[in-house]
Amino acid sequence: MKTFTYFLVIVVFLTLTSAISRGQETIEGIYAIFSGDQKIETDEYEVVQGESYSDDIRSVGAKEERRVAKIIYQNSSLESYEQTLNGFPSWRASNDNKFFKLYEKEAMVGMFPVEEAIYFLDPNMYTQYWFLIQVYEQQKKEKLRLNVAVPQMQDFIYVDIERHGSDEIKSGEKAVNATHYRIGIGKKEVANCWVENGKIIGMYLATKNVYVTDASNDKLLEQLKRIVNRAM
User: pTM for this structure?
Assistant: First the structure.
């Protein structure tokens, strides 16, 4: 019994030490999503930066819809992705380091040879933008173009990322200068993201006129609207 106890303690210690040495931190929160002034969705998310990104998005109002997605990266390349819609398979992707495979429901809709790191973005899953911003910061370029798999396109498209200065955002009595990033997704969408301490606290999806806000800041929507209107 003692031998087993010592072994268990050692395993737990090594596991915790390994997690701390990699700087792992699980970030949890809730986004409130608005179309104009109307709240349309909530997103309960969980992020381990550089490793996994999970969204649990539920519609608000008469239309009951739930989209759940989780993406896992290993060595800065996609390892797997799963998304469900109301509990049924919606999108799935895998990477065995030889081929990247994309599935819609149960049908394979794309298979591509793996020649470099695989980046992935479902534009409707809000935490997935976190990883692309992290890649941008690691590359230390003024403007970065990535070749990104977008499931709705069933293909890879170019995604352009650049900084657009910073904006003051207030939360209660506290004010922060949030870094503003602009992410161009092919010719389909432009996502404006405001980041504080590596965390996206607000977004504006220009084509859809959709705002994504940290639900803990009930004044954020109006602040983002003022920033967007000032820039237009």
Answer: 0.87
